[in-house]
Fold these 2 entries.
Entry 1:
Amino acid sequence: MHETIHLLEKTDFPNITRSKVETLQVNLGYQCNQSCTHCHVDAGPNRKEMMSAENIDVVVDYMQAQDIGILDLTGGAPELHSQFRELVKIAHSKSRHVIDRCNLTILEEPHQEDLVEFLAQHKVEVVASLPCYLEENVDKQRGKGVFGKSIRGLQLLNSLGYGKGDKNLKLTLVSNPQGPQLPPSQESLQKDYTKFLAEKYDISFDHLFTITNMPIKRFGSMLVSKGKFEEYMQLLRDAYSAENIQSVMCRTMLSVDWQGYVYDCDFNQMLGMSLSHNDQIRTHLSEIMNINLEQNEITVADHCYGCTAGQGSSCGGALN
């Protein structure tokens, strides 16, 4: 795989400072039941990295110490972590809003038969990856048969009340481009998804997020292999919109890796670009338990153009 960090480090991207941390996004590990071509985490079935019980405890303590309102669980497939459900239970008992970044096919994996019921019981928001509403495109990007499993997963979620307008059972779909181009209008694409999925599969959902592919890990390596890295970066730079700076996710989100180390965002985590704190090479979540991060400078590189290009992009979809 071609690493791209050396192509991104030298940057003219403007400085950004933090606001109050509202969301703690925790990567529970890189193990996944899929290996998607666009995956910026490089997750897959053979990955063994998983967060320890000790670091799970640190996550819980940090949420309490900093009064974090949103716990955003990701991976890999976060549901494969042995303590996923216990962590959800604890966060729910403390009235925290929990988000599960779900790949949908996990719902058909062994020992996950009751997962949807569990998520609904604890009012977990499901943010589910469905890069396209056409079977051919999804299977090309994520593997043969993935689309069919995803559709069955969405129908199961619908059957338990997800995607029906209940604020406690939110179902959001996530779309990303098939190749090196910017996502289309989130608003117009949501209309297309809504119409097609309802008419063909009787599926409903609450929101659609469009996310720009980042020039890192698998996607970045593909760009390098095909000689399209600089072309794609120029596309992102040319589409830069200064008004997106105030809304980028790194201003209100803190990203934690499976070892408990802290980053300004999930993409920085994958590039090994740690949170700036006391000039340390890496900062552990336990070291900032009672530290106010507001006004801290965010670590930036050229990939940040991906979040600010066009309509903008974040874990919460388009920015404008």
Entry 2:
Amino acid sequence: MPKKIRELKQLLRQAGFQEVPGKGSHTNWIHPLYAGKITVSGKDGADAKPYQDKEVLRAIQEVVDNQHDEQA
């Protein structure tokens, strides 16, 4: 069962990303340890597309990896 958009946003918040409003249903997410931004589109109750899920999980993993690199 696909994740909901609200679940992706919750994962990003938990990983320390900050929400920056975009146009319409788009929200941009930034993090000091992530180069660039993540754009999530869709209403909170809508099913996330597979590419959105992958992009969010990849960004969170990059932040986790960067945190480990800074601690080493």
